[in-house]
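Reopening closed ticket. The problem is back. First fold of the pair:
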Amino acid sequence: MQAMSSSLTIFSFIILIMSVVIHEVSHGYAAYLQGDLTAYYQGRLTLNPLKHIDIVGSIIVPIVTTLAGFPFGWAKPVPFNPYNLRNQRWGELLVAIAGPGSNILIALVFGLIIRFGNAHLPAPFIVLSMLVVLVNLGLALFNLIPVPPLDGSKVLFSFLPLKFQQYRFQLERYSFFLVLILVLIPQFSAFLGLIVSFFFTLITGFPLGAIGF
């Protein structure tokens, strides 16, 4: 039992790292397809984790949160220049949703595999697939929160009149503290956990506790 728990912890960490890398590369490709080559020139349109690792977000935080039972982390943001985007009105919105969108897509693919193939697939694969769904749902939903510097804030301000941009820039100055406050509020973590659990069950057909989460 202890060996299985250790294995799940290790795989959770690996899945988390790859998921945040895919998240950031998706931002880069969304910008690239709209004419901004910033990420391309900086060598960030690659799934090589070494190009994206952030010491705090990709090493320290994932280790701590994985051991705590809810893996979470982030990679270095992939840079892009919004002024290079062909669609100046909605271009930044498309770049913003590409990250969480990639995580939602991954969660859906593996979730549907679990739902329709669980009777024919080996148990270890089902367990790992559940981890993939859990991690990617958590990343997507957290990043969609409309608080800078999270992707949800860029989505929100894309729909607001230009006069609200000044508030965005002011909030972004304190973005680290805003996210830290969110993470440290127990009620927020519990609420986010409930939402993740709901969508996990909706997609996979299993309760989140099916594998001990």
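Second fold of the pair, where the issue appears:
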Amino acid sequence: MRLSFTARLAVLAITLALISSLASVFLIWNGIHNDAIAALRRDTVEQAQDFVSVYRSGGFPALREAINAARDPDDDTLILAVLDARGQRVMGVGPVTTAVQPLAGTPFSIAVPGHSAQWTGREAGFAIHRVGRYWLMTGRLLDDWEQEQRTIEHVVGLSILLAIVTGIATGLVVTRYVGRRLNRIADVVEAVSGGDFADRVETVAGGRDAFDRLAIRLNAMLDRIEQLVGELRAVTDSLAHDLRSPLARLRARAEQASLAEDAGAREAALSGLLVETDMMMRMLTTLLEIGRSAAMGRDRFVMAEPGAILEELTELYGPVVEEARMALTLDIAPDLPAMAVHRELLSQALANLIDNALRHAGSGGTLALSVSRGDGGVRFAVADRGPGIDPADREEAIRRFGRLDRARSQPGAGLGLSLVDAVARLHGGHLELADNAPGLRATIVIPA
């Protein structure tokens, strides 16, 4: 049976808690074991050396006296015996017959010291040293350490039980938290799929976990989707409205051409028909360019010099500006960095700004092109000396199909600045409209 995500998360929490508890207990057990063995080794070696020194200085009488003095009737774990060559105890305390055969010098060892009822199955840490024709066995049974080991085993059992309980509690808390956050995200996604773009995923103030990052990214995506849906609605509404007049004019021109009996009138009607058709084609082409710029990836970007882009446009529009009886100036700031741009779309956006300036600034003025660095980005500016745009109307001028009252008598669809704004956002920047005192200063700001 396949477990749900919540169940798998709970099992993972239980497993991690169990592993951490067992690891902690093992480390404690291993530390106690090593410390106990090290202490026993140290005491056994020191004790053996002391009794060997007693034998060397006073012989067996002094050794017997020292062994008798060291004996404790209440201590049944002490091994302090003198053995003959067959391993039989001659004096002292310890196994009657040692299980260590054959006898040899042993600095320290852990084994069962004897086979009698008292010693069978009981390990001891001991050392064996030769004293004359006998052997001296010193050491101690590991009963104390085994008692500690049993205590640790009880602790292990309690730790396992505690780990299971803690794991279950942790799993419930974690799954509740994760489930609540995921359900909130699922509710927002479900609302969006139902057409409600106003709902957003809540984020914790100052939160930096994966859910907060996911919520921030999801909210940003929903903001973008809501913006695109709003623009799509505006485009469809504006298309239905703004195409009505050109289509009506097309129909009127076609009707005039079909009803005209005079060849000159027919030719004039057909010429007007072509003009209206060209305007509609430009409108649709511009809409396609705006959509293309909004969906364009950065894989089409190339490194380009900002000054070189403006120099090409200056060379291209020089004759047009001169024909419009305007002066054209170019100002390129020094030491501008090369930057990654979509050269075709950026050139098209700047060309739209120049066309707008030529259309609205009138004759006899100055058209100033410049590129500089400031406010964290590279600023491409086109400034004219025309009537400009009031601050209250600038947002409407950038909106798709947005046309100011004084521009409605001129040909156009109100898409030029919309394309410029879309290209600026494609580059991670924005479009600024400012007063040129007099005139308009349109600036594309692209992060350097």
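Update: turned out to be a display glitch only; the data is intact. The first strand starts at residue 78 and ends at 83. Residues 5-146 form a domain with the Beta-Lactamase fold (CATH 3.30.450). Please close again.
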